[in-house]
Amino acid sequence: MNQDPQLLKQAVLQKGLFEELKDLPMALRRRPLIMVARALFGVLAERLGLPHLVHVEAPPSQTQLIRRQVLPRIEAAIEAELARRPD
């Protein structure tokens, strides 16, 4: 599996999405986010300065086949984020 962090940048540039997405990290900086994505997206929180982004790793394809394994990890991420938030 290709772990090249430039892969996402290349994909965004090729699709012409850069202008539309360039302000997104600033808009999301204070919001809790849970992203279910393949391993190479695990660097986004640090690279984009998103302190509340939790990455739940999923395989690059056929995630539906292991959804019973992925869903508990998503639930745990939600619970952890809720526990961090002040009442």
Account of the protein in words:
With 87 residues, the protein is mainly alpha-helical. It has one domain. The chain is built from five helices and two strands. It has helices at residues 6-14, 18-21, 24-28, 44-48, 67-84, and strands spanning 33-37, 53-57. The chain has a two-stranded parallel sheet. The N and C termini lie far apart (41 Å).
Keywords:
87 residues; mainly alpha; two-stranded parallel sheet
**Number of spatially distinct domains:** 1
Poorly predicted residue ranges:
none
Count of alpha/pi helices? 5
Instruction: Give the mean pLDDT.
Output: 81
Question: What spatial form do the alpha-carbon principal axes imply?
Answer: flat
Largest sheet: 2 strands, parallel
Architecture blueprint of SSEs:
Elements: H1 6-14, H2 18-21, H3 24-28, E1 33-37, H4 44-48, E2 53-57, H5 67-84
Parallel strand pairs: 1-2
